[in-house]
UniProtKB/TrEMBL annotation:
Pfam family, one: ECH_1
PANTHER family for the chain: ENOYL-COA HYDRATASE, POLYKETIDE BIOSYNTHESIS ENOYL-COA HYDRATASE PKSH-RELATED
Highest rank taxon of the organism: Bacteria
Naturally occurring in which organism (per UniProt): Pseudarthrobacter sulfonivorans
Lineage: Bacteria, Bacillati, Actinomycetota, Actinomycetes, Micrococcales
Identification of the protein by name: Enoyl-CoA hydratase
Gene3D superfamilies in the record: 2-enoyl-CoA Hydratase, Chain A, domain 1, Lyase 2-enoyl-coa Hydratase, Chain A, domain 2
Matching InterPro entries: ClpP/crotonase-like_dom_sf (IPR029045), Enoyl-CoA_hydra/iso (IPR001753), Enoyl-CoA_hydra_C (IPR014748), Enoyl-CoA_Hydratase/Isomerase (IPR051683)
GO MF annotation, one: catalytic activity
Length: 257
């Protein structure tokens, strides 16, 4: 039996749109979704007719981060997460500009996807949070692209507190390119992609190389942080946090009373 496709690819006027379509679990980064996202992204990158890539979603949530149902399995997350590293690296290294389009919240790993894109546009009602520490894990892998996007003191605060912040604040700290009303979201994304298509493909690709020239190897940094992430997902704290989240109860490390 063929499983339902979770990531769709559409191409129009030089723009390839990748759509996360797993709303039943808030577009969480399941093994299937990660694999399909990698495959569709490669197709878009290898098509010379594609000039710009847009990453978007169906349902009310852009991406909730790791699939915690899979994370409850022995050993932590299901399967290898190498494909997620590959996706982040491909988005970051892409010679074609990439725009994230959000009409709903992003959490944890979803913010990593955003940060790996060149631009991120969201509705002004969108909220964000790095929820990892609240379930006993570490925002390790996503810290790599985020440290290149978000001002340090803000990242320090939101990584440690796990608190929710709004789109206006996300623009202030560098996470978002723009926050607009829901009715203007598509027009703003279209304006941005129209501007990007005016650039010569080779010049855009070389300019991105220049912009990343001073940064350390993203993939090597991602691999280092992957080990940290795996260790915490399989740790006693991580497993307790994931169970508590699933069971809608307070994790054991929070004092009673």
């Amino acid at each position: 039996m063929t499983s339902t496709e979770l990531v769709h690819l559409e191409k129009e006027r030089g723009v390839a749109t990748l759509t996360l379509d797993s709303p039943q679990n808030r577009n969480a980064l399941s093994a299937q979704l990660r694999s399909e996202l990698w495959e569709r992204l490669q197709e878009a990158l290898n098509d010379d007719a594609v000039r710009v890539i847009v990453l978007t979603h169906t349902g009310p949530v852009f991406c909730a981060g790791a699939d915690l149902k899979e994370a409850r399995q022995p050993g932590g997350q299901k399967g290898s997460t190498d494909d997620f590293l590959a996706v982040l690296d491909a988005l970051w290294q892409s010679g074609k500009p990439v725009v994230a389009r959000l009409s709903g919240p992003a959490r944890a790993g979803g913010l990593g996807l955003m940060a790996a894109c060149d631009f991120a546009v969201a509705t002004d009602s969108t909220t964000f949070a790095f929820t990892e520490v609240r379930i006993g894990v570490v925002p390790a892998v996503i810290s790599v692209p985020l440290q290149a996007r978000v001002i340090p003191h803000a990242l320090h605060r939101y990584f440690l507190t796990g608190e929710t912040f709004d789109a206006r604040r996300a623009v202030e700290i560098g996470l978002l390119t723009a926050a607009v009303s829901g009715e203007n979201l598509d027009a703003e994304v279209r304006r941005l992609t129209d501007d990007l298509i005016l650039g010569a493909p080779g010049a855009l690709a070389r300019t991105k190389e220049l912009l990343h020239a001073s940064a350390p190897s993203l993939l090597e940094s991602l691999k280092t942080m992957q080990a940290v992430s795996k260790a915490y997902f399989s740790s006693s704290e991580g497993q307790e946090g994931v169970r508590a989240f699933s069971e809608k109860r307070t994790p054991s490390w929070i004092p009673a009373g």
